[in-house]
Fold:
Amino acid sequence: MKVALFVTCLNDTMFPSTGQATVKLLNRLGVDVEFPTAQTCCGQMHVNSGYVPEAIPVVRAFVDAFAGYDAVVAPSGSCVASAREQHKIVAARSGDRALMGAVEALTPHVYELSEFLIDVLGKEDVGAYFPHRVTMHPTCHSTRLLGVGDRPERLLRAVRGITLIDLPAAEECCGFGGTFSLKNPDVSVAMGSDKARHVRESGAEVLVAGDNSCLMHIGGLLTRQQAGIRVMHLAEILASTEEVA
Amino acid sequence: MIQTRTFLGIPPFPVAAKKALADSQLRGNMHHATHTIRTKRARVTAELPDWEQLRVAGADIKDDVMANMGRYLEQLEESLTEAGASVHWARDAAEANQIVIDIARRHKVDEVVKVKSMATGEIELNTAMEEAGISVWETDLAELIVQLGHDLPSHILVPAIHRNRSEVREIFLREMGKAGMPAAADLSDEPAELAGAARRHLREKFLRAKVAVSGANFMVADTGTLVVVESEGNGRMCLTLPEVLISVVGIEKMVPTWKDLEVFLQLLPRSATGERMNPYTSTWTGVTPGDGPQEVHVVLLDNNRTKVLADEAGRQALRCIRCSACLNVCPVYERVGGHAYGSIYPGPIGAILTPMLKGVGTSKQIDSLPFASSLCGVCYEVCPVRINIPEVLVHLREAVVESHRGGVPGTLMTTMKGASWLLGGGWRLGLLQKTAGLSTRVLWKNGMIGRMPRPMSRWTDARDCPAPARESFRAWWKRTDGGRKDTGSSNTPRKGTDQK
Structure:
């Protein structure tokens, strides 16, 4: 199976440790993952901000980079949701039949990390060790757009040493919302503050999620509050073993 | 006569929201009310094994109505006329208001009683009638609170959701006497007492009124039956006591057959109030001699609905049955309340319906609405007729951007165009990352960006921001051959996220 990592532009630029953890985890599970360097971004920022024509070259770059792979794995529910829901809309807008065909052929092969681990590899216990008190924010796009269900939680429950704590009002949006966080900063922060409060009240030392975009927002509030709670991507916990934890 | 307030002058959403967020009383009232209804709705929808099938059926029936709008409208007109009702066609708000005013004038009345109705709110009928010298008495309890308080509605179903009971008591004590029967001086804020005061105040209006104005939740095309679903019995009073009944109804409120009500009378109360069944469901088919109003008018309102119908991606909004489930679950609405949306239709459905009905590009306020959402998708999850609100929001964002193309490009347009070029190829992104990583080495040595000037302050005023990685993932991959030659990362672990 030819597997590509779609690291996402945010992780690539801001959170390379998440990409590194994904590579480490997949290698440990026997997957020889490749990183096509032509990749950039899913184009969601453009689509969700109303700039559909500007998203066309981005989607084109996406299909060019990943065409031919059996599986494309991304440590982001939101970017995978964009590939699944929005790429066909952008391609249709381009009027380019070749692009439409390429999107249609590629999209079924794009997986969010927890989907790939459970549905494709059939792994729930990935051999991780993480002896910490952890609570999880499920993220809106993973749950409502992708429907990953309890996959991330099942992966976390199988981690040795972990104490998984329920997050109050876990299903509520954190308020990041892409450019929403800048166009409506006051509402975004009000939503994020409630999320951060729930995280603090949970008593966890670590907040985990499958999307660094949400974590950048919630984590930015937590560190400003000197809350003493770390945020970590799911891939980083699943990559942890006794040697490094 | 009470002067009804309008939404004129409400600033764009981010500005209005900022003000609302600072109102702690509003935040408390909204949190309490939305969470109460949210929990009830979740409970009563979960108990129906065929809830998802009902949602699909609701969407399908409405889609059929929209696909065959012309045919159903003609059928409805025919059935209504046969049943003795007078049918009026109104292209827009002005035409609809004039029709209602003319009927009232013909009966030489200076007041009408009103059943709660979104369509008449949309066309600002109250203001038009007041200008024509006719008093309009709202009889729904929450509408009464809004009207007596010289206030604006903030919710589709519970327009006074932003008020708590002590505020209601104050409004009743201060205002009821000016509009009719005053409240007792020793009125407490017990809900039963408040309802009692409203009942006494309204009763004299019900018994006196010659003309009533209503909307309708549904219009059955094949029988000519109108349906009003309500909780307080005020609707029943207005629909049965006066001699003349005028109903202003949006054309999308049709269902093809009586049997279709089976679906909607399950979907609506469970989604709206979280009840299995609402207390009062009134249906009337034209005129019944000797029973109820002897003159029945139905004003069929377009007011840009046919324009929305022509919008392939947006027309699903016309399925809306005004249940408010999307408002009650929305994390944005819950925190800012309804007034910030500047429209009779607030919340997620308002953020799509208002721009479509009033026209994208017509004002900064309108154009701010499709962006008043984090696109979390919970509205779509609860919508009883499966309106994909996030999808329509994104569609309208594009329409807003398109309506502003051609002028001098703003900051965002320039950024988006630049980003489009940068993200069109891996090497371009790599170049950007090298520059960003270099800036981190020089400027943000501890890996965290603190407070920044505008426009970055929109993020950094309340949130820390991690600095771009010194070494991007792609640079790491190249340097270490995908981790095979890893000699450690040159990145400082990000603050707050570093492992112990």
Observations:
- The first strand of chain B starts at residue 86 and ends at 90.
- Chain B touches chain A through 76 residues (CB under 8 Å).
- The CA atoms of residues 216 and 228 of chain B lie 5 Å apart.
- Confidence is low (pLDDT under 50) at residues 494-500 of chain B.
